[in-house]
Design goal:
- With 601 residues, the chain is α/β, with parallel strands linked by helices.
- The chain is 28% helix and 18% strand.
- The protein is built from 19 helices and 25 strands.
- A seven-stranded mixed β-sheet has the order 22-21-20-19-23-24-25, with helices on one face.
- Strand 2 (30-34), helix 2 and strand 3 (58-61) form a beta-alpha-beta unit.
- It is globular and about 70 Å long.
Length: 601
Amino acid sequence: MGKTIIQKIFEAHSKSTADVDEIIDIVIDVRVARDFGGANVVKRLEENNLSIHDPKSTFFTFDCNPGGCDQKYAENQQICREFARKYGIKIYDINSGIGTHLAFEEGLISPGYTFVSTDSHANILGALGAFGQGMGDIDIAHTFAHGTIWFKVPPSIKIILKGKPLKTATPKDVVLKMNKELGANGLLGYSAELYGEYIDSLSLDGRITIASMATEMGGIIILFPTNQKVMEYYKKTFGITIKPINADPDAHYERTMEINISELPPQISRPGHPEDVVNVADVRGVIVNSGFVGSSTNARLEDMRAVAAILKDKTIAPGRILKIVPATDTIWNTCLKEGLINIFKDAGALVGSAGCAGCAAGQIGQTGTGEVTISSGNRNFVGKQGKGDIFLASPETVAASLLAGYITTVDAIPMKPVSVKVEKILTKSETLQKNELVVPPLSVEGRVWLIQKDNIDTDMIYHNRHLSLTIISEMGQYTFGNLKGYEQFAKEAKKGDIVVVGKNFGCGSSRQQAVDCFKALGISTIVAESFGAIYERNAINSGMSILVADDITKKIHEKDIVFIDFITGIFKNKTQGKTFQVKPFSEVQKEIYLRRGLLER
């Protein structure tokens, strides 16, 4: 039987065959830590007396807070700089841009390569037919030290896009349509491959936009077969002829699905959920206070040129602010040379240094209570960028809406914008509390916290404004602080409690703190109907006990007392007198758990 793209990449980087669901060690070509996770990576390495496997394949990228304007971020960046100098590691510092974009802009990767980063959107490299994976700091520390890491070979889905969208629709509109059709967990645990006439016509920038949102569908990665445009990019940019990577004609896919994009109009995600997608026309007229063009999804040169074409000789609506952040310094400088920066500034926009911007707490793009923002980003989770409401759309729709003062499309910009007064709202800081960290035994008994919700993302679990913390004992107090109805969880939870949740728990970012906060509180176990792919790795690698159980939220009640055996998978509900079977620890999970974490020996 033939191989899918991901199987081919894995087998080229392993001594094992890449059979679906097998756990194999993979050689990582490029290993990256960002500024928010980098200090923790350094800490893990130094605490475990680990060195660097290959400095030439190892990098730091400072893209979350390129201004270094937060004291803790600045401190973390300096920790990474000193460590990098010690080992001869290259740093793409605060003047460089988004690390994943630098990976192909600098020629660090090519089709068929493997790449890991503390960036949960490292799978953007699927646009090139390379494997990228966002990981927590334990995983990254392991790759820094050993050059390899374990992976479970995912099954693949073949997605065929049928037809072509309207001329006013962009790749962002297409990927929002995909997000709507697949949902927040439609690709959970899968590698997807994209095909169709529209895919073949895309530029590299368009491919990047679509690949960037695999994470928002729960996917491991969305992979594009190598086309002529990608080969031309490498020939023109680096003077090299690359070897294309494609699936075998007889490759096995778990399923093949078609998504109709014929005559697709501009799309938009309503606040709180990237998958809650409607036609822009359905929400036209909603007043906006601000707009954002940037992120790993839409900060490419094509995006900048498209926005400039709309804003030229115009001014954004009064009382609004438009924030524009190119992906890399190279793109920023090209915008300067082509006069695009002047167009942005003349229109009244704020232009930021290259970087992740609104996706990270440390740079422009945050919102206040009551603020309505339209953004070209990839996520609009509640609280992700402050307390405002965030709509997701294409850069073109963002620009048109900021000229109008309300949500609209490029072909429906009014002659006169709508006025609105924007008020700033300050938030109160939370008080720090310290909690002890405990390590659970091979079986536990405790009280259940039943949370009957699916797709609880990492911002709900542990908000990004607390990411600068590196001391685990200080993290517990923020657990579920952004999950509606559970804001008091950290105060009411007791050591030994067991959290039971629905599907796709921990979707979203790669932050390790979303696991460590439970350890800080002494939560013994998390049982979910399924976990986000990165979250599952982070929990296993840190020695946190997690288990998967089908329909478990329907079988128990809040505050039931249950007993769980991690090795046999026996789940006894002592309150109800019932016994269930859950999926026990795998051998790898058991091994890591017993030594209290991947880096422990």
